[in-house]
């Protein structure tokens, strides 16, 4: 058998499709496939709703000690993790003297965010996302949501954090 | 056996193509809306806004059944497929 003929035969064995078959897997099957995708998306939406109602995200319980006030200089930050959790947070000492605590994961693709001292901006270096350090709101870039926030409270010189209660606009 | 279908098909041979293209167009539209609904639902779920999730799910179910119902109109072709 010639080399070319041999190659031809092997090719046919590897891809045992007749040309009419290949052209017949067309719009009819594609329409059915789209219905399957549609069903998948429906199930996905159902799972999102079920997860949100049946297994809601746990709120931070109680107050957690972080550090002393003077351990974080003005414009400085301190990373921390709450007990029993793996979510990283940052404590920021703003230039106006106030403290803020946010989740350190960008709401876009969970990259680690950092505070730019003097700018009032929390920055995500992955896709140039920016958040307001004062409120956690998105200022620029692809992040779809604000940074989750913790409330900072002081007991003498000690800094504590607890769950931030968001006051919805319509309830004000 | 009636020759109605055969004569119809030979009179307007492009009909099958038009029906299929329309079906697929509507299904792509449905799937696009469903992707948008899922994206919105996820974002709101992560932001603890749960009130939109059930309506988004219901809309997704309706769109799926519209797409599924469309399959009833899927033409089987003018001739018997290869055997």
UniProtKB/TrEMBL annotation, chain A:
The chain crosses the membrane at residues 33-54. Pfam families: Rieske. Gene3D superfamilies: Rieske [2Fe-2S] iron-sulphur domain (2.102.10.10). Signal peptide: none annotated. Its cofactor is [2Fe-2S] cluster. Keywords: 2Fe-2S, Disulfide bond, Iron, Iron-sulfur, Membrane, Metal-binding, Transmembrane, Transmembrane helix. Residues 64-161 form the Rieske domain. One of its GO terms (cellular component) is membrane. This is Rieske (2Fe-2S) protein. The lineage of its organism: Bacteria, Pseudomonadati, Bacteroidota, Flavobacteriia, Flavobacteriales.
TrEMBL record, chain B:
Keywords: Membrane, Transmembrane, Transmembrane helix. Pfam families: DUF6755. The chain crosses the membrane at residues 16-40, 52-74. InterPro entries: DUF6755. This is Uncharacterized protein. It comes from Flavobacterium agrisoli.
